[in-house]
Amino acid sequence: MALVFPLLAAAQDDEKFSDRLFFGGSLGFQFGSYTYVDVSPMVGYHITDRLSGGLSATYIYYNVDDPGYYNYSSHVYGGSIFTRFMVTNDFFAHAELELLNMDIYDPFYIGRQTIPSLLLGGGYRMAMGSRASMSFLVLFDVIEDRYSPYINPVMELGVGIGF
Length: 163
Prior knowledge:
The chain is mainly β. It has strands spanning 21-30, 34-46, 51-65, 71-86, 91-106, 109-127, 132-141, 154-161.
């Protein structure tokens, strides 16, 4: 298999499971009349030297307190499954299927709903020492559900340990 698919060649057989795990995520926040707090941890596994996959959880708190307009507060939560393929040592392709449960306020529907997003794109990974990195991603929500929280393009900044 290594001769046919050298980019997908598995790592050495004597490597431990824990050595192939990586952890990371992102934090986002804004405070004031518009408060936004986003906590999104992730865990992944290096399937091969270039291909990895993993799971991510998301929690977002919104609070809008604008006396001249409206008051709104909401909790958004969900998760995703993702995969990354290292095209070079620094650049990677990324695909992520995400489900977020959120409050919907629409003339035809009011309540909570789970919204799907399929985020496709790529990113750049910058090493920060031997086992840590920072990543910048540019993604596009190709489903574009009418209630999606994303406006294309979606840009993310994250950190990882074990990359």
